[in-house]
Amino acid sequence: MLAQAASPADAQGAHDQTEAGSGQRGAVTNLPLPRYVSLKGNEGNARRGPSLSHRIDWVFRHAGMPLRVVAEFGHWRRVEDKDGAGGWVHYALLSGVRTALVTEDMLALRARPNPDADIVAQAESGAIVRLGECNRTWCQISGGGQRGWVPKTAIWGVDPDEIRD
Fold first, then answer.
1. Region labeled Disordered — which residues (predicted)?
2. Any idea of the CA torsion for 92, 13, 104, 83, to the nearest 10 degrees?
3. What's the chain's average pLDDT?
């Protein structure tokens, strides 16, 4: 949840990411692996394997939850959350809209990507926010009607070397 401070598509997410690491691409989509997506609805079953006949190992229950795609098979994507939990999720349950998870409690959102900039809002740990522009060390996030810049190290859902315009 974001609080105001006292003072004043499906592949879209993948196109914004730099190709770091192995440079591997998905066999189905030809998009970079790993890459980040988000959960489209309020619930998504993560299965042991890439079909409806496989057992459900995990259920994601937060719309917009950022997830990392690590593999593809047909209409299925192998995803992981911040803690590495996950499984195979049908692609229709995923969105290319980029979100992030706040990992630092009462995270200060700043007016500019600078540690000395004015604080415009604060975010609680666990808040799911929309991910905007990112430079080498800062990202712009928004949620709850608030918007500001935070250090990349204080959120999950963006790679350390990823630049977003």
1. 1-29
2. 50
3. 89
d(CA 57, CA 45): 8
Query: What secondary structure letter does DSSP report for 72?
Result: E
Cα distance between residue 60 and residue 47, in whole Å: 11
Give the total residue count for the chain.
165
Report the distance separating Cα 78 and Cα 31, nearest Å: 14
Domain 100-156 in the same topology as domain 12-97? yes
Domain ranges of the chain: 12-97, 100-156
Distance CA 42, CA 122 (A): 24
> Residue 39 is which amino acid?
L
Instruction: Determine the CATH number of domain 12-97.
Output: 2.30.30.40
CATH of domain 100-156: 2.30.30.40
pLDDT of residue 22: 60
25-77 pLDDT, tens per residue? 999 999 999 999 999 999 999 999 999 999 999 999 999 999 999 999 999 99
